[in-house]
Specification:
This protein has 67 residues and is an all-beta fold. It has no helices and four strands. A four-stranded antiparallel beta sheet has the order 1-2-3-4, with no helix packed on it. The chain binds zinc ion. The site of zinc ion has 8 residues, from loops.
């Protein structure tokens, strides 16, 4: 039987986050709020998810901080 499975890091957009000054690029902008998690899937169906984190991501340079 052919079994198709995969590991991946998924990211889901949760809309706009707070306005922050980025420690990486120094710009003050509205950050995006995302949820990022590791996922194991079989036949493209997610079976296990772990390491769930809420992050805010700088819209200019992509730096992420945990919130
Ligand atoms: Zn930045």
């Amino acid at each position: 039987m052919f079994l198709l499975f995969g590991f991946g890091t998924k990211q889901r957009d949760l809309g706009p986050g707070g306005t922050r000054t980025c420690p990486n690029c120094g710009n003050t902008s509205r950050w995006a709020r995302v949820r990022r998690f590791r996922q194991f899937s079989v036949f493209f169906v997610p079976v296990v998810r772990w390491n769930r984190r809420h992050l805010e991501v700088c819209g200019i340079c992509g730096a992420a901080i945990e919130v």
